[in-house]
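so i finally got all the pieces together for this one. its two components total, 768 residues if u count the protein bits. some of the lines might not be protein, just check the labels. i wanna see the whole assembly predicted at once instead of chain by chain like last time, that was a mess tbh
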Amino acid sequence: MENFAFYNPVKILFGKGQIANIAAEIPADAKILITYGCGSIKANGVYDQVKSALAGRNVFEFGGIEPNPHLETLLKAVELIRKEGIDFLLAVGGGSVLDGTKFIAAAVHFVGDPWDILAKQAPVTAALPFGAVLTLPATGSEMNTNSVITKWETQEKLYFASPLVFPRFSVLDPETTFSLPPRQIGNGIVDAYTHVMEQYLTYPANAPLQDRMAESILKTLIEEGPKTLANPQDYDARANLVWSATMALNGLIAVGVPQDWTTHMIGHELTALHGLDHAQTLAVVLPSTLTIRRDRKSQKLLQYAERVWGIVDGDEAERVKEAIAKTRNFFESVGVRTHLSDYGVGLDTIPAIIKNLEKHGMTALGEYKDVNPQVVEQILTLSA
Amino acid sequence: MENFAFYNPVKILFGKGQIANIAAEIPADAKILITYGCGSIKANGVYDQVKSALAGRNVFEFGGIEPNPHLETLLKAVELIRKEGIDFLLAVGGGSVLDGTKFIAAAVHFVGDPWDILAKQAPVTAALPFGAVLTLPATGSEMNTNSVITKWETQEKLYFASPLVFPRFSVLDPETTFSLPPRQIGNGIVDAYTHVMEQYLTYPANAPLQDRMAESILKTLIEEGPKTLANPQDYDARANLVWSATMALNGLIAVGVPQDWTTHMIGHELTALHGLDHAQTLAVVLPSTLTIRRDRKSQKLLQYAERVWGIVDGDEAERVKEAIAKTRNFFESVGVRTHLSDYGVGLDTIPAIIKNLEKHGMTALGEYKDVNPQVVEQILTLSA
């Protein structure tokens, strides 16, 4: 096992009716800005629950944060915060609203161009405190320090992370997700699954507890994902998806082990250039990455085949092939297509993707830092 | 899944050489009290590492905290802290030193008799901040709010918990545990294993991820425990035991599920009356508790039999019986005996144990709150 530091102070309030408890988590004299997306929280009752929980508090609102949140939109919130002296943020929405709110929190006190936080990885030295009410199980943003932001002007999608942007608390009420369309639930399943794979499917580090915990999340997603798609009102199935998505990226399964993230880095460029949903890019890229990298990942692929999919027959190459096929089939079964052609994207995009990865310094990806542009080309070619 | 709140802000520094990093975790102007046990840290080099890491700092020392730490001892530390104006504690040792330090931290500002924190569950309203350097994998105290203290005068062993006694940080360097005798490693394995069982082996709550994570810890202990006993210098095996013991009781596998703790409550009384090691009491009581409660726990016992021990043959009663037998054999295999008679304790102790449980309000134990004195008598009788 490798040395590690682990720290995650996010308070999770999980279950039915927990939105009612948020007032106690926010300082009484706070000037609160509620940040949200494109209005679904007004349709599904979450907005009313939040307003009711914060009755009598000093509350401002900023809506309109889009999927793959845009720098240009978020800077308007920064302006409002500075003007009104707002000192606490409450993100109400899915991963995009949470990621966007993390950026807003970090940008308010940033000196200089806030895009440098992502483009130059400029250190965040202060951030507004914020809480979250999660309405979409997928990204894990509710219990981590990660944020992915898109600069619309230049079509760039980049990330930053800072311990200063841990949510102070996150409310996870599975009932708030009942009204989500199947496409978003399918995306959430693929996103959570791929988060686990990026931290698990590398090379053995003699960390059996981390491996088993990762496999636990994968098996639970395989088991509960189809259930919650078939019956969105099944509270327990949805609760199990929500908790799996949170556990998939809160740092715990990553301790002391190598990580990959090749699929995410290629995926971000696909979204930036072609507008695919984040999870769609992962569903396209992950099976190809596993196939192209099957020799370097062979030990973990065989473990994954046996423990997650129960594949024990056939020679090693056959078992690996079957495990990757089952992964692809699982993504398709939850409604997320796995080929570039499914989204009208041709292989002529490859030079542009590689050029953007190079621009962003992503020329040595993966757990061995040897996924160079040539390997990216192989991966994308296989994703046709 | 049941509603839950989860919060665990302990920063973990895991791995070789991490003691060298503690100075950065303690305020520069702190008056620090190092608390420790009966001197093993001076023999194994940990004391020197800590002193070296804190060179130039304002450091006091308080040694002599015994196993099952005594109120009477800990109050002497409280006196020293008040006299010297100490404002940060650093616990260096195993679960007893950590539990004792939590009590010291809570007692310093307590108005009235600090034993009330345990005997009357008086609320803790303030506590000194503290960090920990763990030298014995077992109790999980390094990443939770629990503390068990013994009042020597009255032979009472009681617990308290408060979010104010989370360690600010805990250093877990597996190498510091290489010199531990096999008895303490065996005890640690049984302690961690039983912690998981208290949170897992109850009734199904449709929480498959929590179940699988609990099973992950159990399987890792079964796999790595014998390895680390056979070769104490095997870094990875020891690291896996250390991390498993921490994960066994940091709150994560308990979220949204019922808990038992019958075995621990009976065990505490056995230690208080007869001086058995904590883990010895657990090894004695757990198999009997599972047997006596096998009807109410049948669904989880069958799941445990299949997933942890691979038992699939035989009728339900046979599978349950075999799983409990394997549990007992595992404890014996790591050197912890599982019968009262192994420790020279006769069944004539039962009335005294029950009287003490009644005195401590422990007359309705377990996940159904139906383990009354009569059931305790059955459990202890079976433990002969």
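The mean pLDDT of chain A is 97.
Residues 3 and 49 of chain A are 43 Å apart (CA to CA).
anyway lmk what u think
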